[in-house]
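Can you make up a polypeptide sequence alongside its tokenized fold?
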Amino acid sequence: MKIYSKVLTSALLASNIFAFSCYYNKAEVNPATAECKEVIPTVSFSKDINPILTANCANTSCHAGNNPEGNLNLESSKAYASLLKKGSGYVDTIHPKSCVLYSSLTSITNPMPPKGALSACDLKRIEIWMKQGAKNN
């Protein structure tokens, strides 16, 4: 009985280590520390940010439809108003990396989007857009 107990304990421990080591390995690099080598002088919400959000966030099981997750609708026609809703904290033009949007996109424990991290250059575009005043351009 002792041998069975030790084997079972070892198997459970090994499976837990394996499970935790694979948590969110959809990106090999932490998106918050990855570097973008691309030069991005200016960012437009309509040309740069909205397509990122539409492709990665605005689907019916997440941030779209009649009942979007977190009451944040990122469909193309509603994304800007949702992100800039007064008091939401989604966007911060002074400290972009501290806002809800950027923190959610770079979270390791509760990653957004759950299907995998955005590229370092997409994150840089979002940061630059906020630093440039988060304009609806």
Observations:
- Helices lie at 2-21, 45-56, 79-83, 100-106, 120-131.
- The chain has one domain: 29-131.
